[in-house]
């Protein structure tokens, strides 16, 4: 009898064990362990999205997986990007000259408004103790557009006249006067041929930002203060498979444990992994990924930390891009604050590698080719032969060539003061459009499955500078119902005072928002004017959740007049 009971018990245990194992293999974990959101990649995009979600829905379980041992080591790292508060003040590639000779200034206001949202987002984090010490990640650094040659001077003047019509650029100044230029950019004027026709625009409200430090502070706050948030470094996502119930089985390799794999179920997945986003999006199998290919472009910079040299240049000065070059290759001589030390960087000089990440694999490009995107990629190569020529020319540049390029912006530069560093990798988007075939896409693009459960960010510039706006756009796609709720709207209004409104065309609101963020972020670019000091204080109280009935009424009354 005992033998029969023992045999029955063993059989029952085996059946239970087999059922449990089968469940784990098919679903990854039990339903109780299903997380609400998995984020892939420990960069600025995941940091911003995670910060939004912890404020909007703190009861959600959110897991972040980063392949490297630390976050912000790839594209978000301060050494791997331009560090510009990309506000379209100085980036002339955003204002192309048209065939009739006019300059199109329609795009900059959209980018400028997005950066104003970034400033509001960062201000909220400072006021609520999520971030600390604004000078560790953002500092006033005037933005300058600098050109030489009659045609280029004519272009810049038209650009200035067009942009000056918008209240966003009230503070923009323009000059061709060498004496004024020697005040704005002394290092760029010293030693320059006095007969050369030069011009510049100057925007005092410009900033230099360390997006790596922003990322580290945001993720550290999530990891330390929120029990529903889990950070896993040394963790490489290797599989994305759809479960029968609509969730996603995410397979992760523990790189610190011999690559041992485990899985987790997620209701939604966001891929914010820089260059690795495209291969992972393809791994998910969603049809929306089929139309994309990617072409990697790397960059190098000349850098100096010599205090005497750095002291001669205190702005971010952007020039005109070479014909055929991608937007990220616009030459610029930048005052930066990196690792707590002021430095000057000049570049970028394009490099080519088949890697999609700085710490990626040489097989990345080849592994991303599919039957859907190979032809569009070939079409782009044929249609953009000037880009191919540009990249070839950059790759074969000598040390002398790079130094001569620097001297065009810093005539008295001495070679011993500068060293060449390798910055990050970027992946240009190639999109298959039915009517045009393969098209090279500049900028960033949010891609999401039809049901919004799988999403990714592709592309590069202006990227980090506008990440809060980009992630708002993402949430519109993947959380439409929640974003339409009064609860989420109210919280977003605390984080971003201008949320739901348009700053463009609203001078008073522009000044109020800039004065608010300038005071919180310890910048000195904008002061309250007229009667908006009360509104600025209302923004601060709203962010702190300390609105009185009077300030709330004043804020609502003011905001109601600001919708356009």
From TrEMBL:
Keyword terms of this UniProt record: FAD, Flavoprotein, Oxidoreductase, Tricarboxylic acid cycle
Top-rank taxon, per record: Bacteria
Enzyme Commission number, as recorded: 1.1.5.4
Record-linked Gene3D superfamilies: FAD/NAD(P)-binding domain (3.50.50.60)
GO MF annotation terms: (S)-2-hydroxyglutarate dehydrogenase activity; L-malate dehydrogenase (quinone) activity
EC top class named in words: oxidoreductase
Listed GO biological process terms: tricarboxylic acid cycle
Cofactor(s), by name: FAD
Family matches, as InterPro entries: FAD/NAD-bd_sf (IPR036188), MQO (IPR006231)
Pfam family membership, one: Mqo
The UniProt record lists the keyword Flavoprotein: yes
Thylakoid found in the keyword field: no
Catalytic activity: (S)-malate + a quinone = a quinol + oxaloacetate
HAMAP family, alphabetized: MQO
Name under which the protein is recorded: Probable malate:quinone oxidoreductase
Species annotation: Kushneria marisflavi
Designated gene of the protein: mqo
């Amino acid at each position: 009898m005992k033998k029969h009971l023992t045999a029955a018990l063993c059989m029952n245990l085996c059946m239970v064990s087999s059922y449990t194992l089968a469940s784990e293999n098919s679903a990854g974990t039990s339903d109780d362990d299903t997380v609400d959101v998995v984020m892939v990649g420990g960069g600025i995009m995941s940091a911003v999205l995670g910060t939004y979600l912890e404020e909007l829905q703190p009861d959600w379980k959110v897991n972040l997986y980063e392949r490297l041992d630390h976050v912000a080591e790839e594209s978000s790292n301060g050494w791997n990007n331009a560090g510009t508060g990309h506000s379209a003040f100085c980036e002339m590639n955003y204002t192309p000259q048209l065939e009739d000779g006019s300059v199109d200034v329609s795009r900059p206001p959209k980018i400028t408004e997005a950066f104003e949202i970034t400033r509001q987002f960062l201000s909220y984090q400072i006021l609520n103790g999520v971030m600390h010490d604004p000078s560790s990640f953002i500092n006033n650094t005037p933005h300058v557009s600098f050109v030489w040659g009659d045609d280029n001077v004519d272009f810049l003047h038209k650009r200035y006249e067009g942009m000056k019509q918008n209240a966003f650029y009230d503070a923009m100044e323009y000059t061709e006067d060498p004496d004024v230029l020697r005040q704005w950019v002394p290092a760029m004027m010293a030693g320059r041929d006095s007969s050369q026709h030069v011009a510049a625009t100057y925007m005092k409200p410009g900033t230099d930002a360390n997006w790596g430090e922003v990322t580290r502070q945001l993720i550290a706050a999530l990891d330390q203060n929120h029990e529903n948030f889990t950070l896993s470094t040394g963790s490489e996502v290797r599989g994305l498979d759809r479960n029968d119930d609509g969730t996603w089985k995410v397979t992760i390799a523990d790189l610190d444990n011999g690559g041992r794999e485990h899985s987790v179920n997620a209701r939604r997945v966001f891929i914010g992994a820089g260059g690795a986003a495209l291969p992972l999006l393809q791994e998910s199998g969603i049809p929306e990924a089929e139309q994309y290919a990617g072409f990697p472009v790397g960059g190098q910079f000349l850098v100096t930390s010599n205090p005497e040299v750095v002291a001669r240049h205190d702005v971010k000065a952007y020039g005109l891009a070479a014909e055929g070059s991608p937007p990220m290759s616009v030459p610029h001589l930048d005052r930066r604050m990196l690792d707590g030390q002021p430095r000057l960087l000049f570049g970028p000089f394009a490099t080519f590698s088949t890697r999609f990440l700085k710490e990626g694999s040489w097989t990345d490009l080849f592994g991303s080719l599919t039957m859907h995107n190979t032809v569009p990629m070939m079409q782009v190569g044929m249609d953009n032969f000037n880009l191919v020529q540009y990249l070839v020319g950059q790759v074969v540049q000598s040390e002398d060539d790079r130094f001569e390029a620097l001297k065009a912006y810093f005539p008295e530069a001495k070679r011993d003061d500068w060293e060449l560093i390798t910055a990050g990798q970027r992946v240009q988007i190639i999109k298959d459009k039915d009517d045009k075939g393969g098209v090279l896409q500049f900028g960033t693009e949010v891609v999401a499955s039809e049901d919004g459960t799988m999403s990714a960010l592709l592309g590069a510039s202006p990227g980090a500078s506008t990440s809060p706006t980009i992630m708002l756009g993402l949430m519109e796609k993947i959380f439409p119902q929640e974003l339409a709720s009064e609860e989420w709207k109210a919280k977003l209004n605390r984080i971003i005072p201008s949320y739901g409104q348009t700053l463009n065309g609203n001078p008073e609101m522009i000044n109020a928002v800039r004065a608010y963020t300038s005071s919180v972020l310890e910048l000195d670019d904008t002061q309250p004017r007229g009667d908006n000091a009360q509104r600025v204080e209302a923004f601060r109280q709203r962010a702190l959740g300390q609105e009185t009935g009077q300030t709330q009424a004043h804020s609502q009354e003011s905001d109601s007049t600001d919708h356009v």
